[in-house]
Task: inverse folding
């Protein structure tokens, strides 16, 4: 028997090593972030959430990035007025790099569906707190569970400043449905 559901869409490392990840993305587009690996997501869900379904739609997302480049190029004069040529060109570069990485399956676009265990006792919010804490801080222990605080962005969970841990991981694209 199951309780609540979690749908998670996130970009992950697929065939690319972390050392190959373009610094341009972590410095200019998503400062301080790093992509997870599928195994890290599954490890974070172990005994907390039951995996119902997983798909990797990397090639679909490559097409999405290419479409965004075309739309930016079509609206470039207006975008340059709004955010400047430098920022507009950075995003075109990011989307082109991303499209190529998805096409080569260096990045993956995972779409996962989980269910919580109904007899797990804690409410789904607590289950999700443990899941995201494990994902963002692999050295998670029960002693640190209370230090988790959601950031202002609905798609980014990070340990609070008092929480011990290593590099904060944040998905570049995350969608939650509870």
Result:
């Amino acid at each position: 028997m199951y309780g609540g559901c979690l749908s998670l869409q996130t970009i992950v490392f697929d065939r690319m090593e972390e050392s190959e990840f373009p610094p341009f993305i972590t410095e200019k587009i998503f400062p301080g972030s790093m992509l997870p690996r599928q195994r890290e997501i599954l490890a974070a869900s172990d005994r907390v959430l039951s995996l119902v379904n997983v798909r990797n739609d990397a090639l679909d997302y490559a097409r999405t990035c290419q479409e965004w480049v075309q739309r930016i190029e079509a609206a470039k004069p207006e975008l340059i007025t709004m955010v400047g040529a430098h920022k507009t060109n950075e995003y075109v570069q990011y989307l082109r790099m991303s499209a190529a990485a998805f096409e080569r399956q260096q990045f993956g676009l995972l779409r996962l569906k989980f269910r919580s265990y109904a007899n797990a006792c804690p409410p789904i919010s607590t289950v999700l707190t443990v899941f995201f804490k494990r994902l963002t801080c692999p050295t998670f222990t029960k002693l640190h569970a209370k230090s988790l605080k959601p950031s202002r962005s609905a798609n980014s969970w990070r340990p609070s400043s008092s929480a011990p841990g290593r590099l904060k991981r944040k998905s570049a694209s995350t969608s939650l449905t509870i």
Remarks:
- Helices lie at 23-29, 38-45, 58-74, 76-83, 85-103, 124-136.
